[in-house]
Amino acid sequence: MMTPDDPSSDGAATALPAGISKPATVIEHHCITCGYPLRGLPESSACPECATPFELTMRAPALADAGPEYLRGLRRGVNVILLALIILVGHSILDTAYFLKLGGGLGLSAQTVGSLAWPVSCVVAVMNLYGYWCYAQPDPTRHETEPARSARVILRMSVAGFAVVFVVEILLRFVFRGPATSLPGTGFMVVRYATSIVIGVLLLTRFFSTLVYTRTLAARIPDARLMSRCSRLMWLLPVIYLGPVAATYVVWGLSSPASFAGGMSNVAFSGVRTLGALTAYLLYYVLLSRLRQQLTAILATGTAAGVSEMVGRDS
After folding, report:
1. Least confident piece of the model among 9-13, 96-100, 175-179
2. Are residues 90 and 118 in the same domain?
3. What pLDDT is attached to residue 306?
4. Range of the domain at 149
5. CA dihedral over 205, 211, 215, 218, signed as positive or negative
6. C-beta of residue 162 within 8 angstroms of C-beta of residue 196
7. Quick one: 207 and 99 in the same domain?
8. Are residues 180 and 256 in the same domain?
9. In terms of C-beta density within 10 A (0-12 exposed, 13-18 middle, 19 or more buried), how is residue 276 classed?
10. What is the pLDDT of residues 257-298, one digit of tens each?
11. In the 8-state DSSP scheme, what is residue 42?
């Protein structure tokens, strides 16, 4: 059946009446900027989440059409991020085991394990800087269609900002520390606290922009399950990671410091906090592992793994 705007009707397209948009799209599309599902929206409209015109999403190339160097760079970044995550998880388990007095059989003292915290943090930070920088590299095929404030751009800005603050943190720790510092004691502490706050903001920005950016990459595969996981983990991971921490401080506030510090409640909640963090790390690892599998499949065969089963699914 021919429609008024069907080019095959009378040999030419007929203009729609004023005030009437093009029919809603039937094919499953996701916004190329934020990954928002656009099913049921008119093709002349914009994404209700970020206002990106639908036309830009239609013009965005599939990930399989991207250059192999770009795809290898994405996979390299994901691999480094996953390796840093494994190191972080291993140290968290070791640190918690000694805190709960379960690691004496390893031949390491609690002081030795505690002294590893800063070196491990530095290694993980450097690996994440490199990994996320590679992961957020620009796609040459999207140079003309990528919005100026895309999730990828925000992610790269957060990585660059973290690199600057990380250098400041090292200077504060090793250069301006001690009696010989030129900074007054109060001013030094203010700078340290301010640096910690900025690091927290940058890490939150990196977390959310990574999930949004990953969702846009999943839309270009397309992998509906990966897109759905990104949307779900955007609220689930903060709850899993920060929920036990918040509960710990609530209980601490309701208890007397003398009875809480070093007591069974402190030990129990330390275990709960670690369990929440490890669960969040595991879910994040599974998410990025799925993306790595898709990138590997595209590089090897030119097609995503199981793409025929994933298109249009929101599981």
Report:
1. 9-13
2. yes
3. 65
4. 63-300
5. positive
6. no
7. yes
8. yes
9. buried
10. 555 544 445 556 666 778 888 999 999 999 999 999 999 999
11. B
